[in-house]
């Protein structure tokens, strides 16, 4: 495990545009970290525009989104719309950075990415767009296209044993300590299943990981 992965993650996003995918069941902590990152990004003035797709924005009871109502250049939608991705692509220029946050409550988008979003995800660095997707996946797997473009994977609690095995096969079996699936599964259950709102972060560029994202951004 790499104890500096939070610092590396934030340092990377200060200057680079990435694709971040957070997956797990509902109420596992995905949306909380997304919101904390948006607050951090606004404090650091990382992006010029924010396009946020938040299904619970209008009826959230805990004032989670209140800070967005006073923020400039923030565009909030109750669900993902392909037409907005098309609009974003048309507005791209080298002088501004854009943040897209998608709370994919149905997991349909996570499985089937439309052509405009595909272009955004493929050219994120060139277009200066960071995309952060939360997928509420419990019974499905990550779509093949999305797996091919993500830079960071945040893996939270899920009852889907098949998905846990998919994550091990594709990302974690390369590590010496996880050559056996049982070893990874045991650590996942210890650090993720048994600790509320915790998860596994995998930096796919630098091939590092950490089983502790519960406290990410709480000290920023």
Give a topology summary:
Layout: H1 5-15, E1 19-24, H2 30-43, E2 49-53, H3 66-69, E3 74-77, H4 82-91, E4 98-104, H5 108-111, H6 115-122, H7 124-127, E5 129-136, H8 144-149, E6 152-155, H9 161-172, H10 181-193, E7 200-203, E8 208-210
Parallel strand pairs: 1-5, 1-6, 2-3, 2-4, 4-5
Antiparallel strand pairs: 6-7, 7-8
Helix pairs in contact: 4-6, 9-10
Instruction: Please bin the fraction of helical residues.
Output: 25-40%
The major β-sheet equals: 8 strands, mixed
Order of helices and strands: HEHEHEHEHHHEHEHHEE
> Which strand order do you get reading across the main beta sheet?
3-2-4-5-1-6-7-8
CATH superfamily: P-loop containing nucleotide triphosphate hydrolases
CATH class: Alpha Beta
Mean pLDDT figure: 87
Label the CATH architecture: 3-Layer(aba) Sandwich
CATH structural fold name: Rossmann fold
Total of domains: 1
Number of helices: 10
Question: Can you tell me about this structure?
Answer:
This protein has 220 residues and is an alpha/beta fold. 39% of the residues lie in helices and 19% in strands. The model has no long low-confidence stretch (mean pLDDT 87).
Please sum up the structure shown.
The protein is an alpha/beta fold and 220 residues long. Helices cover 39% and strands 19% of the residues. The protein has an eight-stranded mixed β-sheet.
Structural key phrases:
220 residues; alpha/beta; Rossmann fold; 10 helices; 19% strand; globular
């Amino acid at each position: 495990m790499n104890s500096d992965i939070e610092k590396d993650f934030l340092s990377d996003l200060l200057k680079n545009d990435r694709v971040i995918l957070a997956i797990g069941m509902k109420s596992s902590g995905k949306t909380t970290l997304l919101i904390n990152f948006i607050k951090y990004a606004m404090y650091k003035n990382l992006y010029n525009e924010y396009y946020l797709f938040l299904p619970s924005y209008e009826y959230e009871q805990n004032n989670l989104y209140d800070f967005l109502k006073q923020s400039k250049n923030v565009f909030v939608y109750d669900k993902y719309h392909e037409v907005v991705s098309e609009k974003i692509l048309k507005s791209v220029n080298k002088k501004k950075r854009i943040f897209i946050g998608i709370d994919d409550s149905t997991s349909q988008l996570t499985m089937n990415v439309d052509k405009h979003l595909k272009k955004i995800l493929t050219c994120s660095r060139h277009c200066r767009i960071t995309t952060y997707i939360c997928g509420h996946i419990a019974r499905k797997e990550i779509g093949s296209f999305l797996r091919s473009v993500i830079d960071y994977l945040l893996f939270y609690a899920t009852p889907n044993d098949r998905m846990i095995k998919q994550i091990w096969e594709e990302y974690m079996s390369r590590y010496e300590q996880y050559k056996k699936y049982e070893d990874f599964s045991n650590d996942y259950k210890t650090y993720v299943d048994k600790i509320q709102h915790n998860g596994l972060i995998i930096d796919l560029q630098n091939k590092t990981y950490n089983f502790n994202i519960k406290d990410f951004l709480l000290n920023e």
